[in-house]
Protein 1
Amino acid sequence: MIRIEGIAAFVAVVEAGSVSEAARRLRLSKSVVSERLAELEKSLGGMLLHRTTRKLTLTEDGTVFLGRAARIVREIEEAAADMAERRGTLSGPIRIAAPVTFGRMHLGPALYPFLAEHPEIELTLDIDDRRVDAASDGYDAIIRNGPIADSRLVAWKLAHSRRLLCASPDYLARQGIPSSLADLNSHRGIFYTNRGVADWRFQTFDGAIVVRAKLALGINNGDMLRDAAIAGLGIALLPAFIAGPAIREGRLAEIDVGHKPEAEFIYMAHPEGRNPSAKLRAIADHLKKSFGDPPYWDPVG
């Protein structure tokens, strides 16, 4: 007999990339996950995964079985959630990925009261600045700042996200205050490397223009990007949700070069073709209300 626990273990191992990570996500021991996987293969009469000391890869049978197995697991989870929602309860597991700095500064404080109000929701929040694949990595949704380029995702806007060109008062006193896009070419820039060093895009009457200042520092973390600007290393193009407090405190100054950076948003996105659960919609609605319009973090509202 094929047991649903074995199917769930198999899907989790494939999505996680390892038995250890799958065990962590399922909150089971590694040995239990391995036993369930072995029992499933015995029931099916074939190997689903090639195992080596370094990685797991799908067999031909595993590749064929995976699609239906994943649908079975999702449908059972959705059916259980539907039953709970019929009783007026939001419950069950949900997995969301979000960026580090936004998660620490704004997402966490917004989510904590929601989770306290709905204690039967089992949220796993993965905080990581890397661009995860929501579908293949097994996330119910991702939260990101900026454009959503993946056509396989359905995006909901949670809040506007202005980006502000800013530097420390000390840097501007030493190097001068740029007043045009052309002036930026002679300044030192601090860039967020997860978006590339050419992400200074501004809106003009002739369309978007990319400006490339001299590289002073490339970094893949928003907190350190802000701190480097405060330390006077150069100019940074920072989201208002990161730069806002430092601007209000006078540690950073916003720079006006006559053109605004391209508009962006805070998004929640879920894989296309997957019916979002009521609890995911409830989380999105709660976050929109918590962030406000305009968002509370914007230094000028």
Note: The mean pLDDT is 87.
Protein 2
Amino acid sequence: MKNIIVILSALGCIGLLTDARLPDEGPFPAVRPGQSNTAAPTPQLPPIPEPKPERSDADTPPAKQGPPDFSNQPEKQGPKLPSQQTLEEQHLTIAAESDAEHSECERELQVLGVVFKDIARIDDGNGCGIDKPIKVSEALPGIKLKPEAVFRCPVALALARWMKESVIPAASVAAKDQGHIVAVNQASSYICRLRNGAEIGKVSEHARGNAVDIASFSFEKGKDVAVQPRREDPTLIGAFQRTISAAGCLYFTTVLDPESDAAHETHFHLDVLERNGGYRYCH
């Protein structure tokens, strides 16, 4: 009996299985903890580049060019000479001189016996000139200044004092066989030019009437004593030149001698340029 019941139960289960329908899709696997239940992303293809915008004229690189054409440009100007330079470029003006100081200076020249005369104010443009110029024909009594020189009174006064107190005493020892000095030969006094006669650079103190260049000394007899390089000269004349060059700085604020540079190999440059603190340049 029990066997019959088991057989019938088995046949009922088979019937149920026969009528059951399978699902259209199989079961999805369970989502693991921490895992999203979204589908995996579809692989992306590389983006298609957008078409490049058209270039404007400003973006277009310039074409290669040949050598520059200067045919239509103005001709390049050479260095400016003093007559072409403006006051602003050189910061040069004709300094006004005190009437009282000028009168006192001339009085001292007269005491020393300097032969001179006043001349009209000089204005050569571009700041070159002298407010109260004088023309000197004798540096001291009996000592000609050749040729006559034009500068400011302080230059004449410094020259006279240097000659009287240093040059004449030194010459009486170094060249006593040649007698007294009878002339001072100058190479330059007032002139409107740049330093060292250059075409560019600063205006010379000669253009302000502040300087004189001395080339040689003439004696009663014998040859002139020329200013020339004498640093290694072992003679009395060599000692004479070195002595008066050094002494020049007692009277002038600038002394340049033949040992200074090539531009001064043939003369002394002496000037009365005023510097801050009374500084003097002697070389």
Note: The first strand starts at residue 115 and ends at 118.
